[in-house]
Structures are given as C-alpha cells and as structure tokens.
C-alpha cells in the first residue's frame, strides 16, 4: 500500500456561491482517496463560521461572490483557519491576472482558473488534484518541526537584499518589503516564479503596498539603493559590473531546476557582486530552486535566511536550503524582516 493510502486524507472546504460549482468540484475530488471534502459553503460568512468548528487543510475559494467577496474574506479565512491554506479557484484568475496577483499577495497559496462552460472536467480535475497535493496538509500551530543546523550570519553593511519565492511566496515577499525601513541603503532583487503576464501587476502590487519604486528587470538596468528589481517571467536575473555600476543582465540559460526565472541565478549573482554584503532570503515554494544559488552566495561569505515551515504554503525551497545547513535563520517572514532590519541598523563594515 502506498504512502497516499496510509496518510490521512487532505481535508477540504469548497466555498462558491454556485451550487452547481460546489457540487461538481465535490464530485471531482470525491474520486481521489487522498482528499476528503468536509464542508461546502455558499458564502464567505458561512466559510468563516465553519472554520470556527471544523479543522480544514485547504479552502477552495471563489473570488466573485455576492456580499463579501472571496478576496475580501481571504485574510480572515487564513487567520481563522489555524494553518489552513487557500487555493483560489475562480474564472477571475483566467484573463484577469491582476485578481490572481492580488489573491497571492493577500496570502493565497495558489490560484487556478475555472474552466469555461462545458469544460468542467477532464484535465481540470487532474490539475486541481495536483495543485492540492502540492499545497498539502496544514501545519497546525505548535506542530513539531525537526531542528536544523544554522550557520553564523555575516555582519557588516547590507549591500544587496535578494528575495526568492515560488508557490505561496508572494504574500511573504510583500510582507517583508512592507516591514523594512524606508531607507535600507541597498537595492532589492526579487525572483518570484510567475508567468510573464503577471509581472507588471506584481510590480504595481509591490509599489502600492510598500511605497518603493519597483521595476521589471531589463537588460542594462542599473541597480539603485531602495529600488526593487523583479526578474521578468521569461529570463533569469543576473548581474554584471559596468564601471562603477552594477547592472542587470538577462540570462536565458536553461537551469537544472527548469525554473524560469531561477532563484539560483539571482543568488549566485548577488554573491559574486556583493560578497559579504549579500543577503538572500528563500521563501515559500515547491522544489529546490535557490539551493545551489544559496550555496554559491554563502561561499562568497554572504548570508541566507529561510522561511519556516509553519508559515510556508509549501515548505520545499526553504526546506532544501535549511536542511543543507546554509541558512542563518529559519523564521516567519515578520521575524525575518526584523533580522534584516537589525542588520541594516547595525551594519558597518568590520
């Protein structure tokens, strides 16, 4: 018997104002032994009431509902869910990339567009199951986590902050950036696994939430202190020295991880350009992208932080870095922001 059969099923709540959608989604998921649909809700208020008494691993949440919308309720659902994740399943995430980015920024682990009329079956069912398995069961507060070996953090002036994230990481990225001091004295690089069409929306989301000038990386763009530079969806964010400036170089080399953009490339570049002054942060995401780049950054005397398991929608990327002994801190994003702030405020070259 396989591991799926031995593990408790992932407990699901479906929140959608359409009785047909609720019924179809429940029937789709009912054929999989590793899922259990334990509650159906027609409104956000019903979902919130149910979360007070029912333990849920993943909430499948529609966006467009009468009364309180899914996006309006999303932060409170996460708060009441005691570790439950949210997968937004909505037609608003199909053509309206902005709705998907907003959902991710509010804390959704992932988004999936509903298929059109007459296509609510077939490959969609497989894709839905795959997304849910990727998110996995909730990690409840107080859940024991194996200890990891931490390495000493570098001290001295922060010269570059690099944030890498994938599934569920967008919320953590914006959370850290919002919590930082207005002046950090260094450029900020971000590699978030998103399709190219999402990047302009993501840039606007960061700029609006954090008040920092945010640009999607272009070839030859010079890094500026206080500005955020996002890896584009079609290339890796690499760097090179041009005179007294560090500028962006877009790299399209295929990476072993298959990720485009790749956190590995950004971390390696930050370590090469800024050495001891480079600080990389690995946030929620599936897979191991960032591991080899983190290793190269640490070899250049830089520092790596990682998001903890309890607050990660998917503890894949941070786990790989933490278990390799490359991280100097494994903490929730709010605590990582405090550690970065301490480095900024106390950082002088020694």
UniProtKB/TrEMBL annotation:
**CheB-type methylesterase domain span:** 152-347
- Report the catalytic activity: [protein]-L-glutamate 5-O-methyl ester + H2O = L-glutamyl-[protein] + methanol + H(+)
Q: Name one Pfam family in it.
A: CheB_methylest
Q: Matching Gene3D superfamilies, A to Z?
A: 3.40.50.2300, Methylesterase CheB, C-terminal domain
The protein's UniProt keywords, in alphabetical order, are: Chemotaxis, Hydrolase, Phosphoprotein
**What is the E.C. number?**
3.1.1.61
Give the active-site positions. Answer: 166, 193, 289
- Report the InterPro entries cross-referenced here: CheB-like (IPR008248), CheB_C (IPR035909), CheY-like_superfamily (IPR011006), Sig_transdc_resp-reg_Me-estase (IPR000673), Sig_transdc_resp-reg_receiver (IPR001789)
Tell me yes or no: is Lyase among this UniProt entry's keywords. Answer: no
| GO function terms (MF aspect) | phosphorelay response regulator activity; protein-glutamate methylesterase activity
* Protein name in UniProt: protein-glutamate methylesterase
